[in-house]
Amino acid sequence: MIEYIKGSLAALTPTAVTVETGSGIGFRLNITLPTFSTLEGQSEAMLYVHEAIRDDAWVLYGFATERERELFRSLIGVSGVGAATAVIILSSLQGDELAAVIAGGDVKKLKSIKGIGTKTAERIIVDLRDKIKGVSETLFTQIAARTDAYDEALGALQMLGFDRRQSEKVLTAIFDKEPAIKVEAAIRRALSMM
């Protein structure tokens, strides 16, 4: 079983990456948007791998963090959630935000993701609520507050004409450094960084 792949980036798209290892072999891995954002602008990469070996294909999934891979594996363990759906979920809700949504039983937020209906959202919550590690009630409250402030700041930056992807990167850096920052302060700081 492959634990991780490390090498130079031969190709990168928002959904896949090709990593060439020292042996001259290029591995194509399906990735999430958070992993794409992490790899963008890099020449080297180390990705944690999940292998899906079927009769007709050998598919690799790459993740920038072990936590993201753990969440992916938890999601595909839920009946009715395949690898493609898990990638979409992880591209829509990142790491602790997804854990907080599951811990908080937020069916509405899960349903807002393409391809997730009410029954699937409920099944994800029921199956994973006790399995998701590292989310306390305090973290859930912090993430809910951060998400609202982050979303409001992102909307404001887009209304000012800034690119969504660039705005997301800058805001993520700001909120990672100072999770309790107010919306206005986050916008001011983002404007000075763009």
Tell me about this structure:
The chain contains nine helices and five strands; from the N terminus they run E-E-E-H-E-E-H-H-H-H-H-H-H-H. With 194 residues, the protein is α+β, with helices and mostly antiparallel strands. It has three domains: 4-63, Beta Barrel (OB fold (Dihydrolipoamide Acetyltransferase, E2P)), CATH 2.40.50.140; 66-128, DNA polymerase, domain 1 (Orthogonal Bundle), CATH 1.10.150; 137-193, Orthogonal Bundle (Helicase, Ruva Protein, domain 3). Strands 1-2-3-5-4 form a five-stranded mixed β-barrel. A hairpin with a 5-residue loop joins strand 2 (16-20) and strand 3. The longest helix has 23 residues, at 137-159. The radius of gyration is 18 Å and the shape is globular. The mean pLDDT is 86.
CATH superfamily annotation of the largest domain: 5' to 3' exonuclease, C-terminal subdomain
DSSP strand content: 15-25%
Tell how many strands the DSSP assignment holds: 5
The domain count comes to: 3
Give, in spatial order, the strands making up the sheet with the most strands.
Answer: 1-2-3-5-4
Give the structural class: alpha+beta
Fraction of residues in helices? 40-55%
Q: Which spans have pLDDT < 50 for at least 5 consecutive residues?
A: none
What is the typical, i.e. mean, pLDDT?
86
State the shape. Answer: globular
Q: What is the radius of gyration computed over CA atoms, rounded to a whole number of angstroms?
A: 18 Å
* The CATH topology of the largest domain: DNA polymerase, domain 1
Determine the number of helices (DSSP H or I, runs of at least 4 residues).
9
CATH class division of the largest domain: Mainly Alpha
Distance between the termini: 42 Å
